Automatic annotation (TrEMBL), chains A, B:
High-level lineage: Bacteria, Bacillati, Bacillota, Bacilli, Bacillales
Cofactor entry: Zn(2+)
HAMAP family, alphabetized: RNase_Z_BN (MF_01818)
Source organism of the structure: Jeotgalicoccus meleagridis
Keywords for the protein's UniProt record, in alphabetical order: Endonuclease, Hydrolase, Metal-binding, Nuclease, tRNA processing, Zinc
Name the record gives this protein: Ribonuclease Z
Length: 308, 308
């Protein structure tokens, strides 16, 4: 699993940073990409990657500001001609997204050749994706804005086929039976399956935030605890916490302080304002720990599995 | 005056060609750019040019298909932060554009810091811009699609200041009086103004088409006659006229044939399908006259004045 930041900028695009779009690449595990927010020209960014639009089957919209949604109609329309025919797609987003897409497709006389399912999200909703349970918390951004916390389901451990072969049990359908059952019989002997199965592979926890002030609500922070990856905005640097608060955004050090007891593994900052140049960002980076990143466009980071 | 093609592609963007947007650069003459159609990522294309969004004061939308309008909300929103504050902008486009923009700005909670004036256009309408008279003809594209024909107003000729100086008339307010009046007096002598003013500078005629089949209606063709510049789509090459007709598009040779008696000066083809590669296009180009062009993105061409 891998994070790919397609757009790391805030508000309006610059030559370097596009407005927000973030990919969770689950192709190796689940043969799909999950897209979070679709700033204008997200489809153009995708053209510069190996991402197949047809493999984007779920889109989460954190909030309805233009820099997070204006690329959605174009992406959806083009996907129909990029191998997406008959491959359904679901959009999760705040109330209003469905009516706007209807209005947009109606005025532009667009028709899609795949099923589009739109789920309007509310705070504290639970969403069941195939391989993830998703929780939703409301943030503080003046308009409804959400963090989506994806919890990958745990997987049973690897089968110790070397040990089975030592007992003379050859590979075959019995290996699947061993993984499924509590015990199994071979040549009159009863064995415990757990003795041949490795440690459970714990699912990953990934949190992608919409724009927001720093939120200190306990239920939200509890749900973030131990996250493998948190993606959060940092529209302001340089200790401009008051300004960030006034504009319903976050200042980077304030976020770090808010998350200091969460035992997260990786933290990635996005939604970087065009006011800051490379020198500003490099300066901020010197004070960050190794597991904290400021993303640029096309930033990629593997999200390792935890074996427990 | 100059044509700048920001997006020369059809339907969906490729790495080489963006969806449609065309600039008429009138900065030298009238201190403004006029924008025709706003495909997604037009604002991104503009970032790679010297065009100031604040100097785009009029936008013409030829029709409401997504590849011609999905960049409009983002362009309008960003212009507010790119020097556009308090500089009004007018959009001319088919019925439906206003309701869609209202829906889009309402869902995204966008507010502009400049006046936005929307004029919904109908066939055969006449539009008076400051320096142009614009006529509108309906095309044939399945949905309402227009060609906008801009007719620049004629200008009075240049003052022959050398001849005036020979008479001992020094530069000053009298030079303006000479240009405005029919005759003037200097040191008791009456002169005819026309003897000191060069030939009238004829305004240019520029026609920018929306997507369309080849249209043979006489009133439309008559209005195109003698155009300094015609921009027309060529979604199909290779004599696929029947296919072009079926999809409400045009085949390039069919267009050339339709325009053969128009005495136009320059013809530029846009809306080039991604099906065609550089080799296909080079092959077509070998058969084109010197005044006929197939545009690429960032294609620029001066539109010379005619002195009569």
């Amino acid at each position: 699993m891998k994070l790919i930041v397609l757009g790391s900028g805030a508000g309006l695009p610059s030559k370097d940073r596009n407005t927000q779009s973030i990919i969770l690449d689950c192709v190796d595990e689940y043969n799909e990409y999950i897209l979070f927010d679709v700033g204008e020209a997200t489809q153009h960014r995708i053209l510069n990657t190996h991402i197949k639009p047809s493999k984007i089957k779920n889109i989460f919209i954190t909030h309805l500001h233009g820099d997070h949604i204006f690329g959605l109609p174009g992406f959806l329309s083009s996907r129909a001609f990029q191998g997406g025919q008959n491959i359904p797609l679901t959009i999760y987003g705040p109330k209003g997204i469905e009516e706007w897409l209807e209005s947009t497709f109606s005025v532009s006389k667009s028709t899609l050749n795949y099923d589009l399912n739109i789920v309007e999200v509310e705070a504290d909703m639970k969403i069941a994706l195939n391989n993830f349970d998703v929780s939703v918390h409301e943030l503080e951004h003046g308009i409804e804005s959400f963090v989506y916390i994806l919890k990958e389901k745990d997987k049973i451990g690897e089968l110790n086929s070397a040990a089975l072969k030592d007992l003379g049990i050859p590979p075959g359908p019995i290996y699947s039976d061993i993984k499924r059952g509590e015990s199994f019989e071979f040549e009159g002997q009863i064995y415990e399956s757990k003795d041949f199965i490795g440690d459970k592979i714990k699912g990953r926890k990934i949190a992608i935030h919409g724009d927001t002030r720093v939120v200190s609500r306990q239920a939200y922070l509890d749900d973030l605890k131990g996250a493998d990856l948190i993606v959060h905005e940092a529209t302001f640097f340089q200790d401009e916490s008051q300004k960030a608060h006034d504009y319903f955004h976050s200042e980077i050090n304030h976020v770090l302080d808010n998350f200091k007891d969460l035992s997260y593994k990786i933290l990635v900052f996005v939604h970087i304002s065009n006011r800051y140049d490379d020198a500003d960002i490099d300066l901020v980076k010197t004070n960050l720990k190794d597991n904290v990143f400021i993303a640029h466009d096309y930033f990629e980071l593997p999200i390792p599995r935890n074996v427990q």
